[in-house]
Structure formats: C-alpha cells, structure tokens
Design goal:
about 180 residues; mainly alpha; Arp2/3 complex 21 kDa subunit ARPC3; 6 helices
C-alpha cells in the first residue's frame, strides 16, 4: 500500500515537472515587451508543489523544470539557464519559507508576490555581479519590483484558481503521507 502511494506521488511530481517545463519553454520562446522579463507561470506549479508536498519536492521540480525547459529551448548552460535556475530556486525558497511561517498573513497571492520579488531581485543581482557590473543596471530594480508585483499577483490568482477548481487539495492529502 505504501509503495503504491509513493509511486502515485512520483508520477504526480513528474507530471507537475512536465507541466512546469512546458510553461517555462513557452514563456522562454514567447517574445515579451520587456526584455528578460517573464511572468513566471511555472511558479504556479512550484507553489502547488510547495503546498502539496513541501520544500524538497518543490526544489526538485524547479531544477527539473529549468533543466528540461532549457533543453527544449536550447539554452542549457547558457546565461538564461543560470538566471532561470537561480531565480526559480530563490522563489521556491522564499515561498516555502513564507508558507512555513506566515501563510495565513500573506495568502497565496502575497506568497506568490514575495516569490516573484525574490526571483527578479536575485536575477538582477546575478546579472550585476557576473556580467554587467555597471550601477545603472541597478536602476532597473524599481521596474523589476513593480513587474514582480504584477506577475506575482497573476501567478497567485492562477494558483488559487487551480486549487479551488481541481481536486488537488484532496489528492495532496492522500499522497503527502507517502
């Protein structure tokens, strides 16, 4: 019985990683009006995994999403790969931390906004430290923070809708003990 639940959990996590990889690849290939900015729809999957399973599983899904998504779009080990990986991991860590200590104060939208803020801040800092090293790059921070609030709100609304309209909460309860 326990092995069956574990198998079900692994299949579910693999499907979520596949969905996140597709969302990642679609966003990476779509042209956006602001260079290097993505809504981060795959973070909805990260948030679902954090809620349903926890931090280790969410970090694994983020790593798989970036690896598979980068393979799909041909950016493996290029700068975009490292931006995506660092931003995704930062976002998952912040969202997971807030879920663990203050979920009731922030709600899904607030948690998602904090994840988007972490993602964009880490990516901008990474660009500054590793590539650009010009202080005028940091002048983009207010724009990135504003875009983070918009993107985080949209991702939080999407995650909330997915939880309400699907049977994921029940499914998570059944498989979490695996």
């Amino acid at each position: 019985m326990k092995g069956n639940r574990l198998n079900r959990k692994l299949v579910h996590l693999a499907l979520l990683a596949a969905v996140a990889s597709i969302l990642f690849a679609v966003e990476e290939l779509a042209s956006m009006p602001i260079p290097f900015f993505r809504l981060g729809l795959a973070n909805a999957v990260t948030l679902l995994v954090l809620i349903g399973y926890g931090m280790p599983e969410a970090l694994a899904v983020v790593a798989l999403r970036v690896l598979v998504g980068s393979l799909l779009v041909g950016t493996l080990f290029q700068p975009n790969f490292f931006f995506s990986l660092s931003g995704g991991l930062a976002s998952a860590l912040v969202m997971g931390g807030v879920l663990a200590v203050g979920a009731r104060w922030f709600g899904l939208i607030g948690i998602s906004i904090l994840g988007a803020l972490a993602k964009n801040s880490v990516q901008l800092l990474l660009a500054y430290v590793l590539w650009v090293r010009q202080s005028r790059l940091l002048s983009l921070l207010p724009l990135f923070l504003l875009l983070s609030i918009v993107a985080g709100t949209l991702v939080g609304l999407l995650t909330s809708a997915l939880l309400k309209k699907s049977g994921l909460i029940r499914f998570f309860r059944e498989t979490r003990s695996a």
